[in-house]
Amino acid sequence: MSLLSSPRAAPYLLLLPAILVILAVVAVPLGVSLWSSFTPYNLTRPATLYTFIGWRNYQRLMQEPDFWWAFGRTLVFVTVTLNLELVLGLGLALLVNRITAGQRVLRTIMMFPMMFSPILVGFQFKYIFNDAVGLVNNALFDLGLIREPIPWLVEGTLANIAVMTAEVWMSTSVFAILLLAGLLALPKEPMEAAKVDGCGPVQVFRHITLPFLMPFIFIAMTIRSLDVARAYDMVRIMTNGGPAGRTELLWTLMARIGYQNSQMGMANAMGYVSILTSILFTVYFYRRLVAARRYMEGVE
Amino acid sequence: MAVRGMAGALSACVLLVLAGPALAAFDYGKFPGTTVKVKLIGGTQYEKLYTRIPEWEKLTGAKIEIVSSKNYFDLDREIKQDIAGGTINWCVASNHTSFAPQYGDIYIDLKEKIPADELALYVPGTLQSSEIDGRLVQLPRVTDVSNLYYNKRVYDDPKVRDAYKARFGKALAPPATYDEFKQQAIFLANPPNLYGTAFAGKDEGMTGRFMEILRANGGDMFDKDWNPTFNSPEGVAALQWFVDLYNAKAVPAGTVNYTWDDIGQAFAAGTTAVDLDWPGFAAFYNDKSKSKIAGDVGFAVAPTGSAGKRGGWSGSHSFSVSKACPTPDAAVSFVVFMTNDESEMMEAEAGNLPTRTKVFADVVAKFKADGNAYMADMFQTWQTSLAEARTPPLVPQWIEVSNVVWPQLQAAIVGQKTPKEALDKAAADARAILQDAGLLK
Fold first, then answer.
1. Of B418, B391, B387, B424, which is closest to residue B405 (Cα–Cα)?
2. CB contact under 8 A, A44 and B102
3. What residue ranges of chain B have pLDDT lower than 50?
4. Which of A198, A227, B48, B142 is the most core-located residue (most Cβ within 10 A)?
5. Could you tell me if B252 and B198 are in contact, meaning their C-beta atoms sit under 8 angstroms apart?
6. Size of interface A-B (CB pairs under 8 A)
7. Would an 8 Å CB–CB cutoff place B30 in contact with chain A?
8. What pLDDT score was predicted for residue A1?
9. pLDDT tens-digit profile of A8-20?
10. B265 in contact with A at a CB cutoff of 8 Å?
């Protein structure tokens, strides 16, 4: 009783509802899914949730080449799309920042791809890259550049490029908007001082604009590295991980194993490997973010 | 005379008594104040039937509450989640022959609730395919089996016909065997304007097509002890059929990513010559507002394989009643009503294959009376194939097995593996699944 009435307990008591809600909506499902990854849990046989099989699911994963191919492809997918989105988003943000008239309209237009559901984006790009009736092949035929249709969604490298293109189209604007916010918050004085000291535009960008933007870049990278899993619907529609697993990513494989095959225990084991990878990405970006902020403080 | 009259009357009575059960109409019952929760497959082609729901409500005094209306794959996920969460609080769900084995024992045996004489009105083979372990867990609504659609503009073109005759010494006619199908598809292909054919290259669509040719060649997916046997010489020949078409560029390269809609769109656009496909596409192909080949669509029964058989991969859309349903009699009344002669006729007029024997004859007669020879021809062609049709293996692991088979089939088609290598890997993976399930020691 005295413990609860102590002034030290007050903050914890006030936080208790929030803690309970977080436990209910985050910790419990995470705990259950972690437990299920140590069981042969099958959706249509609920009793299997109570059969403990230790590390068997994880051991199977370690020996499964298809899983490791999907894992490696996912890393490449995340790395390439994040970097492309960053470069293109930064370019867009810099261009829009230079415009004085119609900036609001442009900002709104820039956000259009974000408003599409990933499923719609998947269908859109599936038909753009379709080998028989697709926009790209039709354009190339009309220009006389090809005589045979290019199998965009079939050939391994092309299929992955097509999927990445769709992802980059959908999400570059997230980077652009976040970086534009950074550019708008940029103090003018250091830039004017640099110009007075004779710095060219490239030097100003390299030594002032970019360091100021780095925290925004890392925040965007952190958010996007977690958010890139939204590409599931898109990949599912465009290629469903195929053909022959050439575009299989961790989340298309997990969905197939978990929902189509009902092997939720195995799918959750894959999910935990994926979560650990995401955590590594997040930790890396946070460290870079903290380093960038320290650098900024030094500059200031 | 009197004796003859008596004998005649007695005979008539005996006949009436014997015929009585067959003539008795199903009693839909009265369930005032009852609400039946249902999960139904949604989508334009399925929802017309649901306009009959108010009729059943008026007839029985019960109410229908549609708690979910989704496509099969989403509905399947939802039902699995209901099983996992122990939250089955609905009475009726749409089901399918391919999906039904996964759901364990959540559905009642309809044979215990529906009189045998009523069940006798359904196509016997279709009804049998709706059973799992001898239990009738679903009442079939419409049936699917594939046959050939061919583009008459291509097949009737005198130049094409002459060239074919000159090359093969035989008149060009819809293919009767898979070898002939391949030969014609390769001959007729003129990409990118015209491909010989296209096939569903992923998901169960790919596995199903492979299974169809495998069976037509005399092979099968498993032996009686559940050993995978699809990597047999018959299986290798079946997969080689796809590989040959792909390598000859007789199919669009993207066919390995195609599903039914993609193939349907390609045929309707006039970019494929021959199409092994489902009955539901017939009306679409002949609709001038949607199809460039309307008026020029021909039908032929599916080809035979090297064993001289048709492999007809078939299944039915259906309704099931859950064991958790508090009002099973009302639910059974509803599913019988939704598959009775009038309901079946409504579906058949839209181009779906009915599951009641009588409706096949009725719908063909109606189309003939309406002067719609096209649809009458379609029903007669598809009915021929149904006699030889077979479902996929009705085990809970079927979809799981299919999911390890089709990526390997794709790998062979796009040239990553030889057909034998691909099928051996798929068979090994399938064996592991069946061993885990305890079907195979």
1. B424
2. yes
3. 1-23
4. B142
5. yes
6. 95
7. no
8. 55
9. 888 888 899 999 9
10. yes
- Closest by CA to B126, choosing from B391, B358, B322, B335, is B391
What's the CA gap between B173 and A47, in Å, rounded? 56
Alpha-helical (H) ranges within B319-436 are 328-337, 341-349, 357-369, 373-386, 398-413, 419-436
Q: Are residues B111 and B136 in contact, defined by beta-carbon separation less than 8 angstroms?
A: yes
Query: So what's the pLDDT on residue B84?
Result: 87
Pairing status of strand B274-277 against strand B315-321: unpaired
Establish if B439 touches chain A: CB-CB under 8 angstroms.
no
Helix, strand or coil, per DSSP, at residue B64: strand
Instruction: For an interface test with B, give the residue of A262, A264, A266, A268 to mutate (most B CBs within 10 A).
Output: A262
B84 part of contact set with chain A, CB < 8 Å? yes
Decide if B216 contacts B310 (C-beta within 8 A).
Answer: yes
Of B83, B191, B256, the CB nearest to A44: B83
Q: Which of residues 93-132 of B touch A (CB under 8 A)?
A: 102-104
Asked if residues B91 and B38 have their Cβ atoms less than 8 Å apart, the reply is yes
* CB atoms A132 and B192 under 8 Å: yes
Q: Cα–Cα distances in Å, from B80 out to B103, B279, B307, B398?
A: 7, 29, 39, 15
Q: Kind of pairing, strands B297-300 and B315-321?
A: unpaired
Which pLDDT score is estimated for A230? 67
The reply to whether residue B403 touches residue A261, judged by beta carbons under 8 angstroms, is yes
Token reading at B106: 């959540």
Please, is B171 exposed, middle or buried when counting C-beta atoms within 10 Å of its C-beta (0-12, 13-18, 19+)? Answer: exposed
CB contact under 8 Å between B202 and A46, yes or no, is no
Tell me how many degrees the CA angle A265-A266-A269 measures, rounded to the nearest 5.
90
The pLDDT tens digits of the residues spanning A129-146 come to 988 778 999 999 899 998
CB contact under 8 A, B252 and A239: no
Chain A contact present for B269, CB below 8 A: yes
Q: Provide the pLDDT for residue A299.
A: 52
List residues bridging with A175 in a β-sheet.
none
Tokens for B29, please give them. 């019952």
**Which pLDDT does position B190 carry in this prediction?**
92
Segment A245-270, tens digit of pLDDT: 899 999 889 988 998 888 999 999 99
Cβ contacts of B277 within 8 Å, gap of 6 or more: B146, B147, B148, B149, B260, B263, B264, B267
pLDDT digits (tens, 9 = 90+) for A214-247: 888 888 888 887 777 667 889 988 988 878 889 9
Q: What is the value of ipTM here, to two decimals?
A: 0.76
